[in-house]
Write a structure and sequence with these properties.
alpha+beta, Ribosomal Protein S5, domain 2, Butyryl-CoA Dehydrogenase, subunit A, domain 3, 3 domains, four-stranded mixed beta sheet, two-stranded antiparallel sheet, 14% strand, rod-shaped
Length: 290
């Protein structure tokens, strides 16, 4: 089991340039990948998304990609050959069209490729192998963190499942006593009204039988037991199970709601409320499961 919350960072270095990739993720119903790339590398966005989608099935994953270029004596590296070529080409152009060839140093420094830094033009084809390597390292860290958080979520939910299982057992023990209690209440009310009936009176027996049928929760208890087994199977699965667990929690709520409405008895009602409280806490945790 994995959480949808995590962070990872990866680096790849070649010839003075280091590509840094940071991946952070939060919970979402579907997979959303937001990629922040240098402008010159926008063509790589699809490749980045595909690499993320290969290891993440749910959650919003933010991918930040940047390059850190080595500096010399605290200054950005100057490509003199590129600057000289710009100057020569601009002077040749000025001579051809008959205008002044005045070129300032500031204008030259702003031309692409003269100052090699984060603003330098990056080539997608040569940059991708390094970015891919850094992204793989970042995603590996991200998955490790999501897995660790997933282990914690699983332990919490298993503890709450044990509480729910115990409450369901308590309800199962008390449920058969509900018709007995109702029979006593009916006889007491009839006696108070001055209409005593023997225990074997057909009308009393029929009323108690109908009541017992209306308050029978054996099916709900059976389905709740089945849900418990299925929930634990999902917790032990290595596949993404967040959506399945979310659906199963809703089914759990339905069974306990039905139990509470059928058995209008104080102790059972108290157990149902406690079980639903535990289920609500599980539902909150499930929202962050991949």
């Amino acid at each position: 089991m994995k959480s949808m919350t995590g962070f990872g960072r990866g680096e790849a270095r070649l010839e003075g340039t280091t590509w840094v990739v940071e991946c952070s993720s939060v919970n979402r119903k579907q997979l959303e990948v937001a990629v922040n790339l240098p402008r010159d590398l926008n063509d790589l966005e699809t490749a980045v998304r595909n690499q993320v989608a290969a290891v993440c099935s749910r959650g919003r994953v933010n991918v930040q990609i940047r390059s850190d270029v080595a500096e010399t004596n605290g200054q950005p590296r100057l490509d003199v050959a590129v600057a000289a070529q710009y100057v020569k080409s601009l002077r040749d152009l000025a001579a051809q069209i008959g205008i002044s060839a005045d070129i300032s140093l500031g204008e030259i420094s702003r031309l692409p490729g003269v100052l090699v830094g984060e603003s330098a033009t990056a080539d997608p084809e040569t940059s991708w192998p390094l970015i891919q390597q850094a992204l793989a390292a970042a995603l590996e860290q991200l998955i490790v963190m999501r897995s660790a958080e997933g282990d914690h979520l699983r332990e919490e939910m298993e503890t709450r499942l044990k509480t729910i299982e115990a409450l369901a057992g308590s309800i199962a023990e008390k449920a058969p006593l509900v018709p007995v209690h109702q029979r006593q209440m009916l006889r007491q009310r009839l006696e108070q009204a001055g209409l005593p009936l023997p225990l074997d009176d057909e009308r009393l027996v029929k009323e108690i039988a109908l009541f017992a049928d209306r308050t029978d929760i054996s099916e709900e208890l059976s389905r709740a037991g089945s849900h418990l087994k299925q929930f634990r199977a999902y917790l032990a699965s290595t596949e993404p199970v967040g959506r399945s667990l979310d659906f199963l929690v809703q089914e759990f709520f339905r069974e306990f709601n039905t139990m509470g409405s059928k058995c209008n008895q104080a102790e059972i009602a108290h157990a149902v409320v406690s079980a639903k409280t535990e289920l609500e806490k599980i539902r909150e945790q499930v929202q962050n499961v991949e």
